[in-house]
Amino acid sequence: MKNSTWSGRFKKGLDEEVLEFSESISFDHLLFDSDIRVCIAHAEMLSECKIISKKESNMLIKGLNAVQKKYDAGKLKLSIKFEDVHMNIEQALTKEIGELGKKIHMGRSRNDLVATDFRLYLRDCSDLILEKLRDIRYALALSAHDNSGVIFPGYTHLQLAQPVTFGHHLLAWHEMLARDEQRMVQTKDRLNVLPLGSAALSGTPYKIDRKSVANKLGFKTVSSNSMDAVSDRDFVCDFAYTCSMTMMHLSRISEELVFWMNSHIKLVDIDEAFCTGSSIMPQKKNPDVPELVRGKSGAVIGSLTSLFVLLKGLPLTYNRDLQEDKSIILEAIGSVVSCLALMPRLILTLKVNKERALIFSKQDYSNATDLADYLSMKGVPFRTSHEIVGKIVKYAESKNISLNEISLDVFKTFSNKINKDVYTSIDVERSIHTKKAIGASSPANVRKEAKKILSALKVYGYK
Ligand code: ARG
Prior knowledge:
CATH topology of the largest domain: Fumarase C, Chain A, domain 2
Bound molecules: arginine
CATH superfamily of the largest domain: Fumarase/aspartase (Central domain)
Strand order of the largest sheet: 1-2
Distance between the termini: 59 Å
Number of domains: 3
Helix content: 55-70%
Strand content: under 5%
Oligomer: single chain
Number of strands: 6
Number of helices: 19
Order of helices and strands: HHHHHHEEHEHEHHEHHEHHHHHHH
């Protein structure tokens, strides 16, 4: 089959199987809206620069809008016959307005066009992901505020370490996602550079105004080197990295949820709407959503490696390999968006088992550090306090009692600095309120921090 866009020098038509092998319309149709926007800005600029007449420009734009309308109404069939979204649109435009449609490609090539469309599309995706990240941050801050006073076991090495508050734990998750938001803002900033006008690789002899196109499309700057502009896919890697970080965070969060849901632990209960049963064991309620989020993170993290491997051997400038970048990142974005979208409701409907959380928080001498701090505040050097408390724990363990159950007389045999006030210092429910330094886990801190987050989110329309 002959391709009317580039087949002038060919005698033979393209092999049918090669056509199927090389088409990209099956995935780059997602760039349709971006391509139309880019074409309109380009057509406007061509007439501003007197490369085409105002009348021609108006007709091109009218035609492009008509093509978009047909597409939106499901009346434009995209075909692999025209390889990709760019040529499908050019064909549709020419069908719509006749020969003039063929002028749209003056001063540009598909190489700079695809890079431009792609940047524009990813910019829209970054806005969507930013919105979803803020939704989760909002849910976490709300829930942290509600759970600011809930004592919860804190782990290191996945062994009980010290009590924290559940709200503090939720705000730790919030920090990860707040960094993801910052990272996505930076990623968006870096991809906001216009490659259009670089043409195939060497630039164009037409007296085009690239800054005007950048302005129309909301790009902050224009690229400085035509060869780099058509071959650069750093912005796709940046995007994949940013998505990978988010998925890595969501996966860690998911792992904690699965652990807390474990039948022996039962620290939280995930709402039924987010769980599934078993086809054979009638009693089962499985935490499938966090499991799937954890599972999906693998392919997203893999997308970054796929892109690096795709790019690492490519010489300047455009190589057809680059077509593969889209399916890799588009799939990753699909996963990230679907995972992000579920999290706010999962968080807001999560039930924490306060009684068990308190019991667990008090186990395994989790207040030993409080006792060491008590001694050090009485003037004992911390290393010495640590040593003394180690011995006290060993004693308590041998008697199978908690630190709170040791009598003052016995305490005094370990250190004469210990007085009656020790019991309040090692009372988990009281000591939590003393963790008041910036970033520490006290209920007051958590409430203050949650309020700060909620008030910062107000500019985005959150209540
Ligand atoms: N479908 C191609 C892609 O996604 C568009 C650019 C084609 N350029 C070329 N010289 N064949 O990369």
